[in-house]
Design a protein that fits this description.
Helix content is 80%, strand content 0%. It is mainly α and 184 residues long. The chain has one domain (3-183).
Length: 184
């Protein structure tokens, strides 16, 4: 592929994926999707770093995060996307290069927990705590810790699932995309 063609492909691919990522985030207006859709949106952005390179992926993450804050009124989903789900799939494999593997796991948990705490602190300044913990009144003062523990368990499953999503993309989707690009 010629240099100009490659640049055109990169710009078009990034634009399409950023648009898709933003459309996915729009569905975060559905209350139960506040945490799930930022995760899917981040995976879409990851495909840019896989198909083009990490620099394009990170720039696309920044562009999509800005678009989400402009277009998506669900501030909670926007913050979780900005502080974690948007960039984590891009940096995951770099963090996994840390040896021993136990330290890599600790680093991933630290990244997640720092991101969640920052997002939660911002949210608690924007919204009142009762709105954030809606539905968890029966747990009383432990509600924040129960929610945090559940979030860490969900993160472990998410991190595990990413490994297989990356594998599936590299095994089935990326070869087909590259084959189509070579034909043109």
């Amino acid at each position: 592929m010629a240099k100009n063609d490659r640049l055109s492909f990169n710009i078009a691919y990034c634009g399409i994926v950023i648009a898709l990522s933003t459309i996915i985030m729009l569905a975060a207006l559905i209350p139960s999707m506040t945490y799930v859709l930022p995760a899917f949106s981040g995976i879409c952005i990851w495909t840019i770093s896989e198909q083009i390179n990490k620099k394009w992926g990170l720039l696309s993450y920044i562009a999509s995060a800005m678009l989400c804050f402009i277009l998506i009124p669900e501030i909670e989903a926007d913050l979780y996307y900005l502080f974690f789900f948007g960039y984590y799939p891009i940096i995951k494999e770099y963090v996994e290069k840390i040896r021993p593997k136990f330290l890599a796991f600790i680093a991933k948990l630290a990244i997640f927990n720092i991101a969640v705490v920052i997002a939660f602190l911002i949210l608690s300044n924007i919204m009142n705590l009762e709105q954030i913990l809606e539905g968890l009144e029966s747990f009383g003062d432990l509600a924040v810790y129960i929610l945090w523990g559940a979030a860490n368990i969900a993160f472990v499953f998410y991190d595990f699932a990413l490994k297989y999503i990356f594998y599936a993309f590299r095994k089935w989707i990326k070869p087909k995309m590259n084959k189509k690009l070579k034909k043109n």
